[in-house]
Automatic annotation (TrEMBL):
Gene Ontology molecular functions: carboxylic ester hydrolase activity
Keyword set, alphabetical order: Hydrolase, Signal
Ranges for domain PET hydrolase/cutinase-like: 37-294
Protein's organism: Actinoplanes nipponensis
Annotated protein name in UniProt: Lipase
């Protein structure tokens, strides 16, 4: 005779299996909803990889146009921008060359960054002898031109802007970030500035220095700049092994990779790039790396 308890066990087992499946589906739905909510509305492009960041171009086709030296506030330059309009608007970056230099000295950064989904303006300064404070003002004037007057202004989200620069241009990017705290990111490269204290800087800042820089030695420029920025401000310091002051004037992988990752993380609020910031790069080409590690 069949035990009367067996059907009850079967029913209980079926109930447990059904309940477990239901919970799994609910958990999966909640996880998907959380992931969807966590994704930035400004996220652009495919999931990042080290190989993609190290390539000479990112996933976006780009075009460029010249800016006349007659423009107000800075000395003209070149704009690089994604040709696609399917993704909506893009963040924008203004970049200044260094003392006595012209945009052509670091122009590789324009297409490199723009092809990852940014509008980039590489500026010429009013004079090649302009000091950091003036270069900071000119970077801000270039951003204002981009968002208010340029022919590509409709492609730009004016709430997502950044600055960068080399040498005195790097010092200028610190000045601009301090003067306009609404900026989303700053990336000084081998920065030079007589001002060593940036305790009032609130813009997420990546400083890249050269270990063998004798023009703006990291011990008296990049490192004091980084240290003086408050720990509450997101910041990173990358030092290139044996690099001179002029490392930004040559295409190099660590600079390109970290600049793009920093801009994607803070201008696009794209947390997929956290992996390149914390714990950060580690290779023979890097002599020092420090970061507040802005992981989501």
């Amino acid at each position: 005779m069949q035990s009367p308890t067996i059907p009850a066990r079967h029913r209980a087992r079926r109930w447990l299996v059904t309940a477990a499946a239901t919970l799994a589906l609910v958990a999966g739905s909640l996880t998907g909803a959380t992931a969807a909510q966590a994704a930035s509305p400004y996220q652009r492009g495919p999931n990042p990889t080290a190989a993609a960041l190290d390539a000479s171009r990112g996933p976006f086709a780009i075009a460029q146009q010249s800016v006349s030296s007659a423009v107000a506030g800075f000395g003209g330059g070149v704009i690089y921008y994604p040709t696609s309009t399917a993704e909506g608007t893009f963040g924008a970056v203004a970049i200044s060359p260094g003392y006595t230099a012209r945009w052509s000295s670091i122009s590789w950064l324009g297409p490199r960054i723009a092809s990852h989904g940014f509008v980039v303006i590489g500026i010429e300064t009013n004079t090649v002898l302009d000091q950091p404070a003036s270069r900071g003002d000119q970077l801000l004037a270039a951003l204002d031109y981009l968002t208010r007057s340029s022919s590509v202004r409709a492609r730009i989200d004016a709430s997502r802007l950044a600055v960068a620069g080399h040498s005195m241009g790097g010092g200028g990017s610190l000045e601009a970030a301090r003067d306009r705290p609404s900026l989303q990111a700053a990336v000084p490269l081998a920065p030079w500035n007589l001002n060593k204290l940036w305790s009032d800087l609130r813009v997420p800042t990546l400083i890249i220095g050269g270990e063998s820089d004798t023009v703006a030695p990291v011990a008296s420029h990049s490192i004091p700049f980084y240290t003086s920025i408050p720990s509450a401000t997101e910041k990173s310091y990358l030092e290139l092994n044996n690099a001179s002051h002029f490392f930004p004037q040559t295409t190099n992988t660590p600079t390109g990779r970290q600049m793009v990752a920093w801009l994607k993380r803070f201008v696009d609020d794209d947390t997929r790039y956290d992996q390149f910031i914390c714990p950060g790069p580690s290779s023979l080409s890097i002599s020092d790396y420090r970061s507040t590690c802005p992981l989501s």
